[in-house]
Design brief:
- With about 375 residues, the protein is an alpha+beta fold.
- The strands form two sheets. Strands 1, 2, 3, 4, 5, 6, 7, 8, 11, 12, 13, 14 and 15 form a 13-stranded mixed beta sheet that branches.
- Helix 6 packs across helix 9 and helix 7 crosses helix 8.
- The protein is globular, with a radius of gyration of 24 Å.
Length: about 375
C-alpha cells in the first residue's frame, strides 16, 4: 500500500477528524501503555514542557488513516560512574510515548513513520523507553542493525528492564492458587496486624468519579510528602502540575480507577490506577512511612486485586517497570523490554555510540574487578577467623 506520514504540531487548530482518528487508534490499541498516548495524559505530562507533534498516516487520496503522538524532547546520553553523572550529551529527537505507534500492525505503515521522522534534518534520534522484542514495530527497528540501512539502534543502558503483570484468571480464589500456603498465611497476617493497628477498621475507598478527585488528591498528597518516592502523579511532589484536571478528565472518560486505604480515620496508602482497553495500569503507589511496619502498600494491593475480581474485572493488571519484590510476588507474567535509541548511520553518531559503549564497558569491568577483590578479601578473613 502506498502511504505517507505527515508530522504536524498538535494545537488548537487540529481538525476534529484527526482528533477522532487519534481516539479511534487509542481504543483499538493492544498496547498496555496506550493510555499514556491519550490527549489527557499528554496535556498534563508533556504539553507544559515541550511541543507535541502528531504523525498522521495518509493514503494516496490524502485521507487520514491513523494518528499517533510524538513528544519533542532531548535524549540524555549519560556518562556516569557509581551513580554520579560526569557528562551528558543531549540528542534532539522524538520520544515515542507508549512505545508503539497507534497504527495498524503493518510494516509499510511503520516504515513510513520512521522515514518521515528522519526526513527532518533537525531530528537526530527516535527513542523508545520500553521496546519489546516481540512487537512488529520493534522488529522493524531491530532490522535497522543491518549495515545496509541508513539507521541503527542502540540500547544506551546495556540492560533489559522487567515489566510484571497479571493475566487475570476467572476468580480471586483461582488467582490465590498461585501462592504457597505460607505466602497466603503471611498476607492474611499482614492484613490482621494492620487492622489491629488501625483500631479494627480498614476502609478501601475507590475513586472513579470527577467529584471524588479533589478529596482523594488532598489525602494522597499528604501521603506522598511522607513517602520514600517523593513522587505525586508522575511528578516530584513539590512540582506544580494540574493533577486535579488530569484525574477529573480521566474520570469523565471512565478511565480513572484510584484507591485510598484508610486505617481508622487516617489514610495510610494510595494507588493511582487507570483502566483502559481492559488493562488496569498500576501507575503509582505510595504509603505513609509511619505505617511501614504494618505493610500498608501490600495490604492495599491485596484489597485492590480482590475488588478488581468483584467489579469490572480487567483482563490484564499491569505494573509499571521495575523489579520490586511485591511486583514479582503478585504477578504471574513478566516481559523484558529495553530502551532503544534510533540514530542515523553517520560517522558522528557511530563515534558517539562507540565512545559511550567503551566508557560503559570500562566502568563495568572496573566495578567487577573491585567487587572480585573485596570478595577475595572477605573470603580470606573468614578463613583466618576459623
Amino acid at each position: 500500500m502506498d502511504v505517507r506520514v505527515e508530522i504536524i504540531p498538535w494545537d488548537e487548530t487540529l481538525p476534529s477528524c484527526l482528533l477522532a482518528k487519534w481516539q479511534e487508534g487509542l481504543h483499538a490499541a493492544n498496547n498496555f501503555h496506550a493510555i499514556l498516548q491519550s490527549p489527557e495524559w499528554l496535556t498534563y505530562r508533556w504539553k507544559p514542557l515541550t511541543k507535541i507533534m502528531l504523525a498522521v498516516l495518509r493514503d494516496p487520496t490524502n485521507t487520514a488513516l491513523a494518528v499517533t503522538p510524538l513528544v519533542c524532547n532531548k535524549f540524555p546520553l549519560d556518562f556516569s560512574v557509581a551513580g554520579k553523572t560526569l557528562a551528558t550529551i543531549e540528542i534532539d529527537g522524538y520520544h515515542l510515548v507508549g512505545n508503539v505507534p497507534l497504527f495498524q500492525n503493518l510494516t509499510v505503515f511503520y516504515q513510513a513513520l520512521i522515514n518521515s521522522i528522519f526526513d527532518a534534518p533537525h531530528i537526530r534520534c527516535l527513542y523508545i523507553k520500553g521496546a519489546a522484542n516481540d512487537s512488529p514495530f520493534h522488529n522493524i527497528l531491530g532490522s535497522t542493525q543491518n549495515s545496509r540501512t541508513k539507521l541503527f539502534a542502540y540500547n544506551p543502558y546495556h540492560k533489559k528492564n522487567r515489566y510484571f503483570f497479571i493475566e487475570m484468571p476467572s476468580s480471586y480464589d483461582e488467582y490465590c492458587k498461585r501462592f504457597s500456603r505460607k505466602a497466603l498465611y503471611n498476607m492474611k497476617r499482614e492484613l490482621r496486624l494492620l487492622e489491629k493497628q488501625a483500631g479494627g477498621r480498614l476502609d478501601l475507598i475507590k475513586v472513579t468519579k470527577p467529584d471524588q478527585v479533589a478529596a482523594f488528591l488532598a489525602e494522597a498528597r499528604r501521603i506522598a510528602k511522607k513517602a520514600y518516592q517523593h513522587r505525586f502523579v508522575d511528578l516530584d511532589v513539590d512540582q506544580p502540575g494540574d493533577r486535579q484536571g488530569l484525574l477529573e478528565a480521566m474520570a469523565r472518560q471512565g478511565v480513572l480507577r484510584a484507591y485510598l486505604l484508610k486505617c481508622g480515620r487516617q489514610a495510610s496508602a494510595y494507588v493511582i490506577g487507570l483502566q483502559f482497553n481492559g488493562v488496569f495500569y498500576f501507575h503509582e503507589t505510595a504509603y505513609d512511612k509511619a505505617w511501614a511496619r504494618q505493610s500498608p502498600g501490600k495490604t492495599l494491593l491485596q484489597l485492590i486485586l480482590k475488588e478488581c475480581f468483584e467489579s469490572e474485572t480487567p483482563r490484564i493488571f499491569y505494573f509499571t517497570g521495575g523489579d520490586a519484590l511485591y511486583k514479582k510476588s503478585f504477578s504471574n507474567c513478566v516481559e523484558d523490554k529495553i530502551t532503544l535509541l534510533v540514530l542515523r548511520r553517520n560517522l558522528t553518531n557511530r563515534l558517539l555510540v562507540m565512545v559511550h559503549r567503551l566508557f560503559c564497558s570500562t566502568v563495568s569491568a572496573v566495578k567487577e574487578s573491585i567487587e572480585a577483590i573485596f570478595d577475595a578479601i572477605r573470603s580470606k578473613r573468614k578463613k583466618l577467623e576459623h
